[in-house]
């Protein structure tokens, strides 16, 4: 259960557009500081680039699959359509395993705190899980603090975004913890895949800042 709670196995992060590699996130503080020193020039270069463990997400530069689904914000049902959202700016689409587990709740708190900064950069944040709509309505208020929408990741969406969570090769009927940044052209420009929730917000925010600097 530790992995679902957000304290489990390390996966991988991708940044698009640089030839630099080897960005697997270490968990110790000293190593984390070293990673920050590596990431800083990457973000300064501009777009997003690549490390690799076993790939379990869309390829970098892929066109994000379009979808519409039901969701909730501030306890109320909403419709979410990716194509419509991209007309307003980039979209941070973050998949998480299960509402009200420890890691997913703390991740939602972190995204809620950062929502104003994402909004200033023109980005929309949407959480995606296989939870049902009543659960998401409650989660959108208690964990997301009415700041951003969470939406139903149907089996089709989970398959198309290649984010099924599995244990020993067996599907668990929920999404893995994977964050995408999708630019306004619909291209995937950033991926962070890690069941440890702690870096998803800061890394997606850094990627969105890079996008903002590249606007004419």
Name the CATH class.
Alpha Beta
Lateral strand order in the biggest sheet: 1-10-9-4-5-6-2-3
**The CATH topology is what?**
Glutaredoxin
Structural category is alpha+beta
Notes on the protein architecture:
The chain is α+β, with helices and mostly antiparallel strands. The protein has a single domain (62-214), classed as 3-Layer(aba) Sandwich (Glutaredoxin). 36% of the residues lie in helices and 24% in strands. The protein is built from 7 helices and 10 strands. The strands form 2 sheets. The protein has an 8-stranded mixed beta sheet with strand order 1-10-9-4-5-6-2-3. Strands 7-8 form a two-stranded antiparallel sheet. β9 and β10 form a beta hairpin. α4 packs parallel to α7. The protein is globular. Residues 1-11 and 17-55 have low confidence and may be disordered.
Task: Describe the structure concisely for a colleague.
The protein is an alpha+beta fold and 216 residues long.
Which properties best describe this structure?
single chain, 216 residues, alpha+beta, Glutaredoxin, eight-stranded mixed β-sheet, disordered N terminus
């Amino acid at each position: 259960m530790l992995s679902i709670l957000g304290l489990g196995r390390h996966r991988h992060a991708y940044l698009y557009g640089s030839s630099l590699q080897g960005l697997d996130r270490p968990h110790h503080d000293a190593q984390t500081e070293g990673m920050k020193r590596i990431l800083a020039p990457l973000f300064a270069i501009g777009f997003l680039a690549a490390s690799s463990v076993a790939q379990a997400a869309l390829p970098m530069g892929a066109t994000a699959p379009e979808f519409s689904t039901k969701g909730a914000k501030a306890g109320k049902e909403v419709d979410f359509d990716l194509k419509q959202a991209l007309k307003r700016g980039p979209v941070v689409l973050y998949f998480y395993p299960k509402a009200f587990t420890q890691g997913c709740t703390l991740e939602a708190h972190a995204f809620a705190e950062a929502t104003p900064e994402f909004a200033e950069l023109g980005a929309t944040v949407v959480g995606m899980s296989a939870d049902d709509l009543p659960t998401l309505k409650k989660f959108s208020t208690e964990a997301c603090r009415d700041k951003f929408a969470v939406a139903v990741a149907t089996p089709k969406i989970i398959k198309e975004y290649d984010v099924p969570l599995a244990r020993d090769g067996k599907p668990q009927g929920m999404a893995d913890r994977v964050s995408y940044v999708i630019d306004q052209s619909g291209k995937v420009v950033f991926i962070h895949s890690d069941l440890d929730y702690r870096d998803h917000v800061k890394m997606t925010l850094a990627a969105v800042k890079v996008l903002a600097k590249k606007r004419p």
